[in-house]
Amino acid sequence: MKKDHVLKDFFSYPIHFADFMNALFFDGHDIIHPSDLHSLDSREIFIGDFLSKERTHDVIMMWERKDFQAILILEAQSSVVATLTGREDILEKMKGEEGTVEMYSFWKDAEKSGMEKGKQQGKLSVVLIQLKKLLGKLTPDLEMKIVNSKEETLDSIIIHIFEIHNEEDVLKWL
To answer: What sequence ranges are listed for the domain DUF4351 (predicted)?
Structure first.
């Protein structure tokens, strides 16, 4: 798979293109609407004051509104996505063999990491809710210890929740 093929396909959808442009240029405000975007052939020849030669681009969209038209061009470079997402591992992988990279695998890894973080946050939330229900208000020190606990520690508290009657009992499992 060519390294930027996945990104080109992704941004060829007006909804993704609009979301990205709104985030990049309009601080996330919904200025560019997907219904106002129309794909243009990336091999179009533009002759005008600034562009006068044939160029190929990853994604070209015409942004049409009642009062104006604008041509928006996106070069979907993996290095840009790596920078925006803070994923330096993408840049390292890109330096590998013949300029190819499996972007799909990076997205799957990111998804897996997000799922793991979500699972950890879910366990933390359950532990805090249950302990507050059992003990009432937790001391800030105990709550901070729980928040900074590893997943295995949270699992232990969840398993032994019926054995907890006070903060000292919680500290046994921390």
So the answer is: 116-174
